[in-house]
Amino acid sequence: MSVVYDITPTITPDMKVWPGDTPMSREVLLDMPRGDNLTLSTLHATVHLGAHADGPNHYGAHAPSIEQRDLDFYLGPCEVMHVDVPRGTRIGLDDLPAEPSAGRVLLATGSFPDPTVWNEDFCGLEPALVDALQEQGVCLVGVDTPSVDLFQDQSLSAHQRFLAHDMAILEGLVLTGVPEGLYELIALPLKLAGFDASPVRAVLRPL
Known about the structure:
This protein is mainly β and about 210 residues long. It has two helices and 13 strands.
C-alpha cells in the first residue's frame, strides 16, 4: 500500500474557529445506542472549518463561489516547503527554500500548531510572494494556518492578490511530519452553491 499523508485536522467541537465564526457542533437526531433504528446527525459549523478551500467570493464582491471553482486547482502535483520565519510575520519570496517545481505549493510554518488552541500570531504571506508565485506558474497555495493573511490584516492584502491572479487558497492544513518534496495533492471542495468556502479532506501521495 502506498504512503498517504492525511493533512486534514480532525473535526471536533474542540476545534477553534476564527473569532466570531460558528464553531462545530453535532445534533444527534436519531441514535442506535438509545434504541433508534439508525443514527442520524446534523452538522452545524462555519464552512471555513479545519482544512478548507476559500471561494473567491469570500474576499471579492461578485467573485465566483466555491462550486464554480475548477477542480483542477485542488488535484495534481504539489510541493511541500518548510519555511522558518518568526511568528506573526509574513513569508516573502526569499524565505522559500527553493523556487517551486510544481504548480501547487503547500507552506509548512508551524505557527498554528494545535487546532484546538487559538493563537493570533500565526504567519501570513507577503502579497508580493503571491505575485511571484503566480509568475512562476503556481495556481494554488496552501498553508498550515487559519489564513494566508495575518490576523490583524482586515484588508486581506494577500487574499486580494490571489483574487487578482485567479489563484486558489487552502487554509488550515496539518503539515507536521510531512517531509519536504513533491506529492500529488487531493483536496476537493464540496459543491456548495453560493458558498464562500468548503471543508476538504486533504491528502498527499508522494510522487
